[in-house]
Prior knowledge:
The structure holds 2 protein chains of 2 kinds. Chain A is an all-beta fold. Helices cover about 0% and strands about 60% of the residues of chain A. Chain A is built from no helices and 11 strands. In chain A, strands 2, 4, 5, 9, 10 and 11 form a 6-stranded mixed beta sheet that branches. The N and C termini of chain A lie far apart (about 40 Å). Chain B is mainly β. The interface of A and B includes residues 43, 44, 49, 95 and 97 of A.
Amino acid sequence: KQEVTQIPAALSVPEGENLVLNCSFTDSAIYNLQWFRQDPGKGLTSLLLIQSSQREQTSGRLNASLDKSSGRSTLYIAASQPGDSATYLCAVRVDYKLSFGAGTTVTVRA
Amino acid sequence: IAGITQAPTSQILAAGRRMTLRCTQDMRHNAMYWYRQDLGLGLRLIHYSNTAGTTGKGEVPDGYSVSRANTDDFPLTLASAVPSQTSVYFCASSGGFNTEAFFGQGTRLTVV
């Protein structure tokens, strides 16, 4: 069974600092890995999708890396802003199933 | 641009009642999914469909049923609701199993 772990569970940083969010998974036979953002009481917003053959993916201030062989992905958010405060979830895909981590709740202090 | 629409947004339901959560997508995605999100347990897959006319069971299918009569709609039915089905339910879709997944805004269901 695929296990997805996100550490830390919560993170508080001052505005302007770079954020580093970690995701690890136990089974490296994945199709892809996707990072999501979830605001309180809202749905999941897709941030980045990395295919299993890719090493990284970038979108604006966001950069995600993938090391499939070691079962790890890292999401970097540059120059954090208060609006980045949310819960960030990673999910790995094998066949039909997306397996989610529990998320990292980020607070960016103004 | 609607994406995925779920209805209702929230519902309080008496135990033993039947309830259908609706999900419609306008992206012509082949694959659709139902997840529930619970504090401490994260997101768990209930049922999925990889194309119209086919469905499959996820991690926690008991007490739930789905149908996929066409590409756009994927309703989730609770035949006889129980309090343990109190949760936030998310519908999702993707073009295939190797493409980006998109989620609806969720239905908050309370069974009393």
